[in-house]
Amino acid sequence: MNPFINIEEQIDANLKLRGYTELTSIQKAIIEKEITGRDAIVSAQTGSGKTIAFGLSIVSNIPNNNKVKKPPSVLIIAPTRELALQVQNELDWLYSKTSICIVSCVGGMDMRTEKRNLKKFPDIILGTPGRLKDYLEREVINLSKVKVVVLDEADEMLNLGFREELEYILSQTPKERRTLLFSATFSKQIEKLASKFQNNALRISTVEKNKQHIDIEYHAIKVTSNNIEYAIMNTLRYYEGKKSLVFCGTRANVNHLTSRLNNRGFLVVSISGELSQKERLNALRSIKNGHSKVCVATDVAARGIDLPNLDLVIHADLPKTKESLVHRSGRTGRAGNKGISILMVPQDKNKQLQRLLNNSGIIAEWRNPPNRDDIIKQDDFNIMQDLKNLDKPSEEENILVEKILKKYNQKELATALIRKFRENKYTPDDLEPIKNSNKEKTKLLKFQKSVWFKLKLGSRQKIEKHYLLHKITEVGKINKKDIGIIKIENENSFIEINFRILDKFLSSLENNNKSYPELDLILLKNKPNISIQKKSTYLSNKFKKTKK
Ligand code: ADP
Ligand code: MG
């Protein structure tokens, strides 16, 4: 610690060191002057950086002098053990090299270590409700000088039945403390809690109610109860290489699915209340460092957990509430990254899904489970991508490269490469697609995977949909059915194309680009953030309309 630098300056430096050059909108909102010192109910979407937001907000309540031995001035409560420890990690780097000391009191962790740490007179105590209550009753901790209490995932603590613990813990803190409630979703119960424990609380929200998270794509896959596991395995195999979190409704289902995936060669771990704390933390670590690619979990992992680069969430069992849908899905699409949330929908659960989607204002795209062809095609694409990104061989590698080149021809080498890529991987089975009924109002997507192109011409340049449709089929030499959504904005247009015909489409474009220079299509890395009308997203409907 540098005695000449104050806490705020050091925190600024720590944020920069971490590469966080700009605060997220919720972080900016919470450090506004009028909030400092006040109670607040804060809602911001999953993955928007709420931990650092409260980390910044509570600093004003921590005395800048650590020489005096005093009881803690901050109390942070989180609903699950994993989340509590994750918050501690995040605050540890945020406050590194400052005088601020944090000690955690978390169920399942070693009590002796915790008690030893508590003797260091921490500024912040952070824990789960059960352990905190236990320590209070046994007078291991003293919360009589607490100036601010943070309840992270406040609504979940009530869902998990921690009301009694919370009330007891809060009753042990001074009445004139600040209380900050954080979550991405707030229920009526929270209003009650707020009115009981907060004073004239400010409401800070950076989310519009029921607004879909722009970085998360929702897919709904219709399955039968017999083929649900195969659909999950095909989906995981299709998105191979991506980190995935699969949610089940019960611990028994977690066990069952984990062993099925394990037997089929997936690198899988699991998290549920049945496992010891050590096993749960090991599972998280294994996913974080990439040793495992798939984590099967109950909703215990749905709240707050931040697994960087988690690309995919699969709901093996449908979530029971809209909050669960939002939080489970919110494990992906974090801090500006893109993610996909896939709902497995057995036929008899269709109504439940529609209700969930309607209540949460989320639009999902219906898709068939990926079949063998889709997976092979995706494999081929991945192999080509790997080759594209290949660095030059090192000197050491070069010796073997020369040796191999002398002995084998190109075809043999390519075959070896493909076989190596597919080695020990789950061989997918084809699943029978299930037809969608006319009643389904959610968007049906025609393609297993699509890519998007941008054209720097829009309605201002008098571009029209049927013109684009006609030109693209003509120049790209593709069928109308391989074109999805066409969205025309003022200055740009966006066109969705079936991934399966991408190669052919690109080469036709290249061959014809001299004759049609105006059709300068740019292949986008991600799906563009465009608003697509809820109704008539079905392409055929759209064209019927434009023909009128
Ligand atoms: P939330 O609690 O809102 O779900 P987290 O606090 O877990 O979100 O943060 C999500 C991720 O975003 C974390 O990995 C965090 O380190 C990262 N993050 C937080 N603030 C910033 C920032 N200002 N810039 C970039 N990344 C950030
Ligand atoms: Mg959080």
Strand order of the largest sheet: 10-11-9-12-13-8-14-15
The hetero molecules present are: adenosine-5'-diphosphate, magnesium ion
Estimate the strand proportion: 15-25%
Based on secondary structure, the structural category is: alpha/beta
Radius of gyration over alpha carbons?
27 Å
Secondary structure tally, helices: 20
Largest sheet: 8 strands, parallel
Question: Can you tell me the CATH superfamily of the largest domain?
Answer: P-loop containing nucleotide triphosphate hydrolases
How many beta strands in the DSSP annotation? 19
Low-confidence stretches: 438-443, 533-548
Mean pLDDT over the residues? 87
Helix fraction?
A: 25-40%
Q: What is the CATH-assigned architecture of the largest domain?
A: 3-Layer(aba) Sandwich
How many distinct domains? 3
Tell me the distance between the termini: 72 Å
Chain oligomer state: single chain
Short description:
With 548 residues, the protein is of the alpha/beta class.
Structure notes:
There is one protein chain. The N and C termini lie far apart (about 70 Å). Mean pLDDT is about 85; it is low at about 440-445 and about 535-548. The chain folds into 3 domains: about 10-205, Rossmann fold; about 215-375, 3-Layer(aba) Sandwich (Rossmann fold), CATH 3.40.50.300; about 440-535, RRM (RNA recognition motif) domain (Alpha-Beta Plaits, 2-Layer Sandwich), CATH 3.30.70.330. The longest helix has 17 residues, at about 370-390. It has helices at about 5-15, 25-30, 50-55, 80-95, 110-120, 130-135, 155-160, 165-170, 190-195, 230-240, 250-265, 275-290, 320-330, 350-360, 370-390, 395-405, 410-420, 465-475, 500-510, 540-545, and strands at about 40-45, 75, 100-105, 125, 150, 180-185, 200-205, 215-225, 245, 270, 295, 310-315, 340-345, 365, 445, 450-455, 485-490, 495-500, 520-525. The radius of gyration is 27 Å and the shape is globular. Helix 13 (about 320-330) packs across helix 14 (about 350-360). The chain has about 550 residues and is an alpha/beta fold. A hairpin with a 4-residue loop joins strand 17 and strand 18 (about 495-500). The strands form 3 sheets. The protein has an 8-stranded parallel β-sheet with strand order 10-11-9-12-13-8-14-15, sandwiched between helices. The chain has a 7-stranded parallel β-sheet with strand order 3-4-2-5-6-1-7.
